Amino acid sequence: MASAPDDSFDQAAAAAIAEAQSWLEAHPVTPDTDRKAWLRELVDSGWSAPSWPVEEYGRGLAPKVARATDQVFRPTDLTGWGQDVTNLWAATITTWARPELKQEMLRDLLLGEVDMCLLYSEPGAGSDLASVQTRAERDGDEWIVNGQKVWTSSGRQADYGFLISRTDSSQPKHRGMTFFLIPMKQPGVEVRPLRQATGDSRFNEVFLTDARVADANMLGDLNGGWHVLTSALAYERSVMGVTQKRKKQSAEVVRDLTSEKSAPVPDLSLIELATERGVVGDSGIRQDLMRLHSWRTVNAWNNQRGKAALSKGTSSPVVSLGKLAMSRMLHFGGSLQAEILGSEAMLGGEDHPDGADATYAMLNAFFTSIGGGTDQIQRNIIGERILGLPKEPEVDKGVPFSEVRISG
Ligand SMILES: Cc1cc2nc3c(=O)[nH]c(=O)nc-3n(C[C@H](O)[C@H](O)[C@H](O)COP(=O)(O)OP(=O)(O)OC[C@H]3O[C@@H](n4cnc5c(N)ncnc54)[C@H](O)[C@@H]3O)c2cc1C
Which of 222, 243, 272 is the last residue of a domain? Predict the structure, then answer.
């Protein structure tokens, strides 16, 4: 039986969907459309981030109602919508920046005209980000920053970075940190590329030597950076989940493994590879294909749980399950790809593109099992916040950071 609150939600959602549809009809996209100009109209209309306040490029819709309007944009090949859940940068600025900084940055971030990076990890602070040693010291209306960051994705292109820095070492390590939006193109910022096992070079080391950031670019409160950081990390985890889900939805193919009857399949490209290599009838391979399919199916259900919690305005630890599941699926999928190829998986280079692909898939799976919080850290989160297990012992709890023994 429908309750009164559901009725009002249904009405609000139906009205918002109708509005989004009529906006889309009034702004059709054809092959001749200037996509950048279209995106500007989308952003200025508030439909790129409908759950945000109107004065912050939103439409002031309740999060759940805003998500209902995704169905208008999802079937199109358009991008730029749903940024209230996919744009980590803009979402963090909306939540924590001062009004002037929001005015300065939000529109450009939604238009994708600013390149950003995350200056969190350091040689001695990765999983335990509360151990950061990069210091920021006040100098009038500015802060002077010294330290080293590492694993900085997109650091070379970035115009700005989200920086977590230590501003008061006399406080315990989770306090005394401050979060800034720091300009990257300045003399005190040196970005050095790193090379990964895959051969790619997506990370950098960043050396900050008397780099400067305006006090007006502080996000959240002085010495309150941990709150900003944890909220930005939660956004990052949910963005990973939503982005993977959208990719999956757009790539969804319906085909049956054994008959002409249509049914969802685990991974069409792996089935095609197994068919091509004559091993699709192998019972072990078939079992692994179905295992992957089962994990994906269960993960999709968990994503729905996470999304339902988010739409009610609560941050959900269930998204940690999604990230962990994605990591397991990518590692398993890479190994399965190699299993299908057999000994060819050991070959690489231009003469053996399938072998090179399998190697890449296996190595690149670490991207997800380390980036944005390792699998072990996700398990800690799940243990503590979902299963209610006791917290890990914290030997440095309450101890001033200046007295904590640190590595690195
Ligand atoms: C694809 C990718 C992109 C990244 N992008 C960025 C970026 O843009 N900006 C940025 O700042 N960083 C970035 N990182 C860094 C990433 O956040 C860190 O690598 C990650 O947090 C782990 O930190 P660490 O490498 O220092 O490992 P450590 O924290 O030293 O961990 C080493 C090992 O110990 C385990 N471990 C540590 N603590 C615990 C614990 N309490 N319980 C159980 N096990 C534990 C870890 O799981 C890991 O296996 C990126 C990494 C990757 C792979």
Answer: 222
- Residue 134 within any structural domain of the chain: yes
Cα(240)–Cα(208) distance, integer angstroms: 28
- Ligand 1 atom nearest the C-alpha of 367 is 1
Q: Which atom of ligand 1 is nearest to the CA of 376?
A: 47
Nearest CA to ligand 1 atom 52: 371
In the reported structure, the alpha carbon of residue 390 is separated from the centroid of ligand 1 by a whole-number distance in angstroms of: 22
Element (H, E) at 160: strand 160-166
CATH code, domain carrying 150: 2.40.110.10
Give Cα 312 distance to the centre of its chain.
Answer: 20
Task: Examine residue 390 and state whether it is found in any structural domain, yes or no.
Answer: no
pLDDT tens for 209-236 read: 999 999 999 999 999 999 999 999 888 8
Nearest CA to ligand 1 atom 41: 377
Of all protein residues, the one whose alpha carbon is nearest to atom 50 of ligand 1 is 371
In a domain, 256, yes or no: yes
Q: Reduce the DSSP state of residue 205 to 3 states and report it.
A: strand
Q: Which pLDDT value is given to residue 246?
A: 53
Q: How many domains does the chain have?
A: 3
Write out the residue range of the structural domain in which residue 324 sits.
Answer: 252-373
pLDDT of 135 reads 98
Note whether residue 5 is domain-resident: no
357-398 tens-digit pLDDT? 999 999 999 988 998 889 999 899 889 988 999 988 888 888
Nearest to 121 by CA among 89, 149, 153: 149
Residue of 129, 151, 240 to test ligand 1 pocket, by largest number of atoms within 8 Å of CB: 151
How far is Cα 16 from Cα 23, in angstroms, rounded to an integer? 10
